[in-house]
Amino acid sequence: MNNLIDQIRPLISSEVFLLTLVMGTFLLGVFIYKKTKITLLQPLLISMLIIIPFLKLTGIDYATFCNQTRILNFMLGPSVVALGYILYAQIEHIRGNVISILTAVFVGSVVGIVSVILIAKLLGADHILMASLAPKSVTTPIAISLSEKNGGIPALTAAFVVICGLFGGLVGPVILRRMGIKSKIAVGLAMGSSAHALGTARAMEIGAVEGAISGLAIGIMGIMTALLIPLVEKLF
Amino acid sequence: MIKGSFYILLFYFLGEMLSLVIHGYIPGSVIGMILLFLCLFFKIIKPENVKDVAIVITKNMAVFFIPACVGLMVFVKLFSTSFVAIIAAISVSTVLTIITVALTQETIEKRRLKKGNNHE
C-alpha cells in the first residue's frame, strides 16, 4: 500500500490532481448540503473533511498542497475587490439611511472586535490567537488578509469565521425576534455584520430587503474592521 | 470577461500600491474594493464593465477559501488546547454584535421617524 502511494505520489501531488480534488470535493459538498439542508454541513466543511484526511494518508504536506493550489488562494484578493461592485449594487437600499447604517455597523464592529479580544485574553489566549480571532465577523477573504497583516494565523481565522457565521446564522434570527426588532434594515444589518455570508443566507430567508441589507453590511463591516483592528491591537 | 478581469485586477493592483504607501495598515484587496466602489459610485467606470466577472467570482468565493481552511490541519493542536476560550469568545462576541447593531439602527431609525412626524 505504502509502496503504491510512493509510486503515484508525483501524480497525486500534482497541480492538476489537487485542483481537481478541491473542485470535486466542493461540488460533492454542495450536493450534500442541498440534499440535507443542514446548516452545519457547509460545502467548505465537507471539502475540508475529505481533503485533510487524504493529505494525512498520502503523506502530502500542507506546504506542497498550498503551493499546488496557490491559484485559488490568489483569487481571494480579486474576490474582495469584486465585493466593491456588490456593495455598489446594494446602494439603492441605503438612501436616507446612510448615517444610521454607518453608525450601527461601526458600533457593532467596535463591540465585536473588543469583546472577542477581551474574552479570549481573560481565558488565557496569546497574541497570535487574539490576532486570529479579531476579524472573525468579516467575510473570509478579508478576514484572512487582516489576520495575516496583524500577526494571526490565516488558517485559524478561516475556521473562526466559519464558526462565527454558523453560530450567528443560527442564533441571530432568534435573538432579533426575542428583542422585538421590527426594522428590516436593523435585522439585515445585524445578520450581515455579525455572521457575514452565512448570516446573509439566513437574512434572505427572512426577506429580500433584509437579505440585500445584510449583503451590504458584509462590505461595510469588512471596511470598518480593517480600519479598526490595527487601532484596537495597539491598545492590548 | 477579459474587460471585467482587467478592471478587477487593476483595482487590486492599485489597492496593493496604496497599501504599500500606508505601510500595510489596510490590506490592498480592501483598498481595491473601496476604490472600485467609489469609481462606480462617481460613474468613473460603468457597472456593466465589471458586473459579470464580479458576480461570478463572489458567488463562488467559498472555493477560494479551501486552501486556507485546509491549513487547519497544521494547527489542530493549538485549536484544541484553546477550544473553550475560542468558542466562548466567538459566541459571546457574536451575540453582542447582533444586539448592538440591531439596537443602534432601530433607535436611530425610530428617532428619525418621530422627527419627521413632528415636522408635518
Can you lay out the helices and strands and say which pair or pack?
The complex is a heterodimer of chains A (236) and B (120).
Chain A: H1 2-12, H2 15-36, H3 43-58, H4 62-68, H5 70-74, H6 76-89, H7 98-122, H8 127-133, H9 140-149, H10 154-179, H11 184-206, H12 208-235
Chain B: H1 2-21, H2 28-41, H3 47-59, H4 61-70, H5 76-81, H6 83-119
Helix pairs in contact in B: 1-2, 1-3
Explain what this protein looks like in three dimensions:
The complex is a heterodimer of chains A (236) and B (120). Chain A is an all-alpha fold and 236 residues long. Chain A folds into 2 domains: 2-74, no CATH class; 80-235, no CATH class. In chain A, 82% of the residues lie in helices and 0% in strands. Chain A is built from 12 helices and no strands. In chain A, helix 7 packs across helix 12. The termini of chain A are far apart. The mean pLDDT of chain A is 90. Chain B is mainly alpha-helical and 120 residues long. Chain B folds into 2 domains: 1-59, no CATH class; 66-120. Helices cover 83% and strands 0% of the residues of chain B. Chain B contains 6 helices and no strands. In chain B, helix 1 (2-21) crosses helix 3. The model of chain B has no long low-confidence stretch (mean pLDDT 89). Chains A and B meet through helix 2, helix 3, helix 4, helix 5 and helix 6 of A and helix 1, helix 2, helix 3, helix 4 and helix 6 of B.
Describe the structure concisely:
The complex is a heterodimer of chains A (236) and B (120). In chain A, 82% of the residues lie in helices and 0% in strands.
